[in-house]
Write a structure and sequence with these properties.
Layout lengths: L7 E5 L4 E5 L4 E5 L7 E3 L10 E6 L3 E7 L6 E7 L2 E8 L3 E3 L2 E3 L3 E11 L2 E7 L1 E2 L4 E2 L1 E4 L3 E5 L5 E5 L3 H5 L4 E2 L4 E7 L7 H21 L3 E2 L3 H12 L2 E2 L4 E2 L22 E2 L3 H10 L3 H18 L8 E2 L10 E2 L13 E2 L11 H9 L1 H4 L11 H15 L18 H21 L2 H19 L2 E2 L4 E2 L14 H4 L8 H14 L21 E2 H13 L3 H11 L12 E2 L6 E2 L5 H18 L3 E2 L1
Antiparallel strand pairs: 1-2, 2-3, 3-4, 5-12, 6-7, 7-8, 8-11, 9-10, 11-19, 12-18, 13-14, 15-16, 16-17, 17-19, 20-32, 21-22, 23-24, 25-26, 27-28, 29-30, 30-31
Helix pairs in contact: 3-15, 4-6, 4-15, 6-8, 6-9, 8-9, 8-10, 9-10, 13-14, 13-15, 14-15
Length: 595
């Protein structure tokens, strides 16, 4: 079976994200928000998804790379007539004491060698490819209408060449500036060059202000840059991925919409941001989670995931009119998992907001509603602590007392206990302690003394990579024999010969998993470092680096046999896993953290 790779790069500015394939096409772009319809979506349907490509006449070879330490993407195209460079970026920089992040895609095309003949094709669509936008010629621009807002392509390329899809000779730098809603009311060339310079400077300064340890730095830097643009800055939400319905494995029907924010991943995301010292992003995410907590109030439970604005109902719809990625259906918009019972999330919320109470780098006046808020989340744990749930992997028709769910309830109660100590509330402290003991009892009900391992759920024989967190969360003392035995049992069953890691191997609602889940492999690396197997951790980490694409971007899933990339891409949480694993190893190695 041929190795499958996602041959695309990602650009974004915390208002939108776009994928540019090595063939120069914008294969994925949702406007005006991360969770909006695509205006370019050939990733899911080559006919109905529209196109925005800059191709030469005849065959060509391409090379793609980022400007160092930026989210500015370059694609070098070589053909018989010569060579040219496309620079793609989403403008982002500081202006008027705030961030300028317009819904604007800028493409600069410059000849490098010879006189290449190129063709620009721009055909945006709307309503998930149900309608093509209508092109209307202006003086120096093309308006695309027929959807919610008009889009405008401002360019110094003759408009007829674009409308007629005609080849022309590239003998000087050309610019394409596609905007949504508000058109450009400024000089094209000087504006594009200023925006490019300011955007590159912004990203390089952002990295300079990051504290990144001296261990596999280029990979951590790229992961940090990728994670950053997965944050929807307007609300602070961080999405799992920019895409929907890229299958976990061909024919698996595990095609999910990941353009939402999962509370279950909050702890890992905030930990990774903390490691690189980016508190502004942390505070924005704190505010998003806090707003959800306040809006839910005394409601019985949280949802596993929310929309980027905190929207609750994310009704799942099948887009039958779309072919799907490489013909793999279904294409889903929305995610039914918002209806699931997932009881680890209360603990995730508590431990995620703990730094506001205990980390003196945050200036946090005691909230008047601290007692009510902590008590409200503890009450949610109390109501659900003995309840079966769908677990971290969101089984659709299976419920159990999951070890992982109770681990995070335990950790959440531990955090609540520290918060109660900080604000001096004895009653809350005692309540947190009592609930922590109940959660621990459920965790222990998952222990198999014969195999010396914690199973995925009470009364279940199955193992699950999520229980690696028993070690990382210090429920098990990493230096203890019990932790080492647990890790050894998990790696014996779930680790693959090529160093990848399955989430689990038992059948779920869709059969047995056929691909490995990349973040689990990074958890495994962290667990190895925790128990003192540092050489093993470094070897396994280095081995995982080969599963990225040409731009150091990682997918959600990897096929063990072929090394193929599957699942939504790039997967923010794969990059979070990489960042946290690299940090764990660097700390053990006592490598300096470069500020």
């Amino acid at each position: 079976m041929e190795k499958h790779m996602y041959n695309a790069g990602l650009i974004g500015n915390c208002a939108y994200l776009a994928h540019i394939n090595k063939n120069t096409n914008v294969t994925w772009l949702c406007w005006p928000r991360f969770d909006s319809t695509f205006v370019f979506g050939s990733l899911l349907d080559k006919e109905k998804g529209g196109e925005f490509s800059i191709l030469p006449e005849g065959d060509c070879e391409t090379e793609q790379y980022y400007l160092e330490n930026t989210n500015v993407l370059c694609t070098k195209v070589s053909c018989d007539d010569g060579e040219y460079l496309i620079t793609d970026f989403a403008p982002r920089f500081r202006q008027y004491d705030r961030y300028f992040k317009p819904l604007m895609l800028i493409r600069k095309i410059e000849p490098l060698e010879g006189l290449p003949k190129i063709r620009v094709k721009c055909e945006p669509v709307c309503d998930y490819g149900r309608r093509k936008q209508k092109a209307r010629r202006g003086s120096n621009h093309i308006d695309y209408a027929g959807c919610e807002e008009t889009m405008r392509l401002t360019t110094n390329i003759p408009l007829s060449y674009i409308i007629d899809e005609q080849y022309f000779q590239l003998n000087e730098a050309k610019y394409l500036l596609l905007s949504y809603g508000d058109p450009l009311e400024a000089p094209l060339v000087s504006t594009a060059e200023t925006f490019l310079r300011n955007t590159a400077e912004y990203w390089r300064l952002w990295i300079k202000h990051s504290s990144i340890a001296g261990y596999f730095q280029p990979y951590v830097i790229r992961s940090a840059l990728a994670l950053k643009i997965h944050q929807y800055e307007d609300t602070g939400a961080i999405i799992a991925a920019s895409t929907t319905s890229l299958p976990e494995h061909p024919g698996s029907t595990r095609n999910w919409d990941y353009r939402y924010c999962w509370l279950r991943d909050t702890y890992y995301v905030l930990t990774s941001l903390n490691h690189i010292g980016h508190f502004e992003e942390m505070e924005r995410y704190f505010n998003y989670v806090s707003d959800i907590s306040i809006s839910e109030g005394d409601e019985f439970r949280y949802q596993p995931l929310y929309g980027i604005t905190g929207k609750k109902k994310l009704v799942e719809e099948i887009m039958d009119h779309l072919d799907g990625y490489l013909g793999d259906k279904p294409v889903r918009v929305g995610n039914q998992a918002y209806e699931h019972i997932q009881n680890d999330i209360y603990g995730q919320v508590l431990i995620s907001l703990l730094p506001l109470y205990t980390d003196h780098r945050f200036i946090f006046s005691e909230r008047k509603d601290s007692v009510r808020w902590i008590e409200s989340v503890l009450n949610k744990i109390e109501r659900t602590i003995d309840e079966k749930d769908a677990g971290i992997w969101e089984f659709r028709n299976m419920a159990n007392i999951h070890c992982y769910s109770n681990l995070f309830q335990w950790a959440g109660c531990n955090a609540a206990e520290k918060m109660a100590l900080t604000i001096g509330n004895k009653d809350l402290e005692e309540k947190a302690k009592a609930l922590k003991e109940r959660a621990a009892a459920h965790i222990e009900s998952c222990y198999d003394p014969v195999r010396k391992v914690y199973t995925n759920a009470a009364g279940s024989p199955h193992l699950d990579a999520s229980t690696l967190q028993l070690i990382m969360m210090n429920y098990l003392d990493p230096a203890s024999q019990k932790a080492k035995d647990h890790l050894a049992a998990l790696e014996k069953e779930l680790k693959t010969p090529n160093g990848l890691f399955y989430r689990y191997l038992h059948a779920d609602d869709f059969g047995k998993p056929k691909t490995t889940f990349l973040i689990c492999a990074f958890w495994y690396v962290e667990a190895l470092a925790c128990v003192g197997r540092l050489d093993d951790a470094m070897r396994e980490f280095e081995n995982l680096m080969k599963y990225c694409n040409h731009l150091l971007l990682f997918s959600e899933d990897v096929d063990e046999e072929t090394g193929s990339m599957w699942g939504n891409f790039p997967q923010a949480y794969s990059h979070v896993g990489l960042m946290n694993a690299a940090y764990r190893i660097a700390i053990k190695l006592d490598r300096p953290v470069f500020l």
